[in-house]
Amino acid sequence: MRVEFTDSAKADLRDLRSYLLRYKPKGTWELVKKQIQEKMEYIAKYPDSGSTPEELQDYPDGFRQILTNQQRIIYRASTDIIYIHVICGQVQDFNELLTKKLTRP
């Protein structure tokens, strides 16, 4: 299956990259980027392998999540494309993050 990032997920990646390059030790972004790439390859092969995010259990769209060491990747699989919707830290308040995304201009 093909993996596509929504505009929102692309913004998440840009924000994550900026944060890691600015505040974390050198090489952290490359490590995190590699982990995300490995997860993308994995869900392309096994799209049903992720778990249902607790916060999205009641949504009928079939959202799933897969975790890296520190990141949470929220995705939804269609018949031939996997859409990445959110990339966020595992310790972030996910409900607050969704509220910000939904109210962002």
List its traits:
single chain; 105 residues; alpha+beta; YaeB-like fold; four-stranded mixed beta sheet; 3 helices; 23% strand
Explain what you see.
This protein is of the alpha+beta class. The chain has one domain (2-100): YaeB-like fold (2-Layer Sandwich). It has three helices and four strands; from the N terminus they run βααβββα. The chain has a four-stranded mixed sheet. The chain is globular and about 40 Å long. It starts with a strand and ends with a helix.
Task: Output the strand order for the largest sheet.
Answer: 1-4-3-2
Number of domains: 1
The termini sit apart by 31 Å
The count of strands amounts to: 4
Mean pLDDT: 88
The named CATH superfamily: RelE-like
Q: What is the helical fraction, as a range of percent? A: 40-55%
Number of helices: 3
User: How is the CATH topology named?
Assistant: YaeB-like fold
Topology (elements, then pairings):
Layout: E1 2-5, H1 7-23, H2 28-45, E2 64-67, E3 71-77, E4 81-89, H3 94-103
Parallel strand pairs: 1-4
Antiparallel strand pairs: 2-3, 3-4
What's the gist of this structure?
The protein is an alpha+beta fold and about 100 residues long. Helix content is about 45%, strand content about 25%. It has one domain: YaeB-like fold.
